Amino acid sequence: TQSTRPQRLLHAVQKNATRGDPRSVVKAIDNFCRQKEWAMNVGDEKGCILDSVVSEVNPVTVLELGTYCGYSTVRIASLLPPRAKIITLEFNPDYAKIARQVIAWAGLEDKIQVVEGPSGEWIPKMKEQFGVKTFDLVFLDHWKDRYLPDTKLLEDCGLLRKGSILLADNVICPGTPDYLEYVRNSPRYKSQYFKSHLEYTKAEDGLEKSVFLG
Length: 214
Ligand SMILES: O=C(NCCCOCn1ccc2cnccc21)c1cc(-c2ccc(F)cc2)cc(O)c1O
Ligand SMILES: [Mg+2]
Hints:
Elements: H1 5-16, H2 22-35, H3 43-57, E1 61-65, H4 71-77, E2 85-90, H5 93-106, E3 112-116, H6 119-122, H7 126-130, E4 137-140, H8 147-156, E5 165-168, H9 171-175, H10 177-185, E6 189-197, E7 204-212
Parallel strand pairs: 1-2, 1-4, 2-3, 4-5
Antiparallel strand pairs: 5-7, 6-7
Helix pairs in contact: 1-2, 1-5, 2-4, 2-5, 3-4, 8-10
The site of ligand 763 has 18 residues, from strand 2 and helix 9.
C-alpha cells in the first residue's frame, strides 16, 4: 500500500537525523521538503522568526494549534526552559501519530503533549484537563478560518493574560484576513507583522505577532 507524505517525512527524519538531536530533526525535515516533497511545515525562514519570538518570550506554557508532523513543535520545544511545557492540538489522527514519532526521535516527548481533536472543543477544557492557568505563547497554524474564533474563545475562557503572545503563521498565504483585521484594529492587542515567504517557496507569507493587553 502507498505511503503518505507524512510517513515519508518521518522516514527521512529516522534516516538522516540523530536521535535526541532536535536541530538535526529540523534540518532533516527542511532538506526533505526542499529536495523531495513540499510539506506545510512553518519551514526554515519563518522558523527563524519563530525561534527569535520564542527565545524573547521564554514561555513556560505554550499552546500550538496545528501540529501536522511536529516540525514547529520540535523547534519551539528545543528552545524552552527546563520545566516549560507545550500542548499541541492536532485534528487529524494520522498526522498526530507521525508527529509523536518525530517528537520522540528528537527526544522531546517530556516537554510536549500532543492532543487530538478540534480546537473549538478542546480550548474550553484546557484548564480542567491540563491544569493550565494561562498561556504565555500561542502559535496558530491550523485551519485559517479558525484563527479568529479560537482567539475569541481563548479570551473568553480566560486563557490569555496581560502580555500573552499570539504568533500566527500564514497570515498572507493561504491568508487569514478576518484574524488580521481583528488583531490589528482591536484595542486589546498590539500587533506586528514579520514579512517572510511561504515555506520552501518564493511566494510572500509572514507571521503576525500580537501581544494581548488584557
Ligand atoms: O492548511 C494549513 N494548515 C492547517 C492544516 C490543517 O489544520 C487542521 N487543524 C489542526 C489542528 C486543529 C484543531 N482544530 C481544528 C482544526 C485543526 C497550511 C496550508 C499551507 C498552504 C499554503 C499554500 C498552498 F498552496 C497550500 C497549502 C501552508 C501552511 O503553512 C499551513 O499551515
Ligand atoms: Mg502554516
